[in-house]
Amino acid sequence: MIKPGKIKKEYLLLTASLLMLVICYQLAFKKTIEAWHVHKKLTSKLTQSSSVNFQPGYSERKNANISRILNLYKADTISFRSNTISRISSIAEKENVKLSNVPVEDPMLHNNQHIIQKLAFEGDYFALIKTLNELQNTPGIGMIRSIDIKSARNLFNESSSKKLTLTIQLVSHS
Q1: Do 92 and 152 sit in the same domain of this protein?
Q2: Are 116 and 137 within one domain?
Q3: pLDDT bucket at 109, cuts 50 / 70 / 90
């Protein structure tokens, strides 16, 4: 047997140091190294999947929302002249406004994506504004691109009139 006085202190210090290193590794360093590996793995997955292209649910919702918005302003070119004009004229009649001018379709106002229709109304200011508001809130007839309100002057009679002319340009997708 080894006598306690015969063991060198250097060996005892070395053995105690190795024993402490194993205990520290098991209690602290092992969990830290494992956590570091998990962090590295999750960070690499996050950078791969952070792109919008990797999220099909987001793309589907975005496409559905865009389609819904486009359908609000979409009009068929053939049915626009019949159905939409009749809806617009009924709105104008309800507000006591006269749909005075529906110009012939101008090919310069058409392209592959948009159709611009010009309409002219006559009436007093408040009725024209109510008609404009109703046209803006009616789905399926297009989006109002521009408006122009002018005084309706009578060439034969110099007296001022309360009648105004409202010219609207409607844009719809083809």
Answers
A1: yes
A2: yes
A3: low
Contact 149, 165 (CB under 8 A): yes
92 alpha carbon, distance to own chain's centre = 32
Q: What residue spans of the chain are helical by DSSP H?
A: 9-24, 30-49, 56-72, 77-79, 85-94, 125-137
Measured CA to CA, the distance from residue 7 to residue 40 in angstroms comes to: 46
CA-to-CA distance for 113 and 128, rounded, in angstroms?
A: 29
Report if residue 2 sits inside a domain. no
Q: Output the pLDDT for position 40.
A: 93
Question: Number of structural domains, the chain?
Answer: 2
> Does pTM top 0.70 for this prediction?
no
For residue 74, the cross-strand partners are 173
Q: Is residue 33 part of a domain?
A: yes
